[in-house]
Amino acid sequence: MRDQARVLKHGLIASWVMYTAFHTWKSWTLTWLSRLLIQACFYALIGRMLGSQEKVDYLLIGNLVAIMAIDATVVILLTVGERQSGTLALMVAAPSSHLVVYLSRGLVNLGSGVVASTVAFLALPPLFGVRLPWPEAALVPLMILVVGLSCYCYGTCVASFVLGFPSARWLALNLSYLVLMTFCGVNVPTSFWPDWLRALTSVLPMTHGLAAIRAFLADGPASTVLPELALEVCVGAGWFAVAALSFNRMVRRGRRDGTIEFSG
């Protein structure tokens, strides 16, 4: 456990150094954060054009949570990038489980997503007349963090399958978060979809977590909110388990046939 914690710590430090080399607080605020806020406002304005405050509320809350999912799934680019840069073999040789190394790569981006989603949650509802149940609403960022961790496990799982096809990483990233935004109740209720598709969305991250957040903001009972959050945790754990199995399979195969350094 000591080696695992040490590798996780240094992985986080390395990720932070890389992230801050790419972003200053000014560039993050004026480019990335503003882009995410504008996206959420765009969908809220659709609700306003439809002349329904209820639709404004629904679209804004859904897209505030979806902001976090975009950042969380960036782990796909970071993990696949290790194979392209030729450092994958070194990461596998780290004195810990290689899964710990992979997971540490994108935690800074996950933190960025949670911060961006929280800023949007604090700043945008008053602009669109969305009423929040303060001070209880202060718990929503913690719920967003739960959803973010689940989305991060999902992104890590996708990355484990894309490792063999590095050139497809951007396609995988865009499809991954667009699937969540389309089918998980962000812009339309999950009840809109046919039963077989609803069954599939129930195993996607954000579906249950977003439902819990909506129920909480609507003063729903704890008996509704907590089970949905628990299901979100279970979904995240499931994606994490699949990611672990997929990464282990990739590493074993790479060691066996000498393709672990492949960077095509």
Automatic annotation (TrEMBL):
Nucleotide-binding found in the keyword field: no
UniProt KW Transmembrane keyword: yes
Cleavable signal peptide: none
Highest taxon of the lineage: Bacteria
Location in or out of the cell: Membrane
Family matches, as InterPro entries: ABC2_TM, Nod_factor_ABC_transporter
Membrane topology, as annotated: Multi-pass membrane protein
Ranges of residues in domain ABC-2 type transporter transmembrane: 23-215
Keywords for the protein's UniProt record, in alphabetical order: Membrane, Transmembrane, Transmembrane helix
Record-annotated membrane-spanning stretches: 28-46, 58-80, 87-104, 110-130, 142-165, 171-189, 229-247
Primary location recorded for the protein, binned into one broad class: membrane
Protein's name in the database: ABC transporter permease
Upper classification of the organism: Bacteria, Bacillati, Actinomycetota, Actinomycetes, Pseudonocardiales
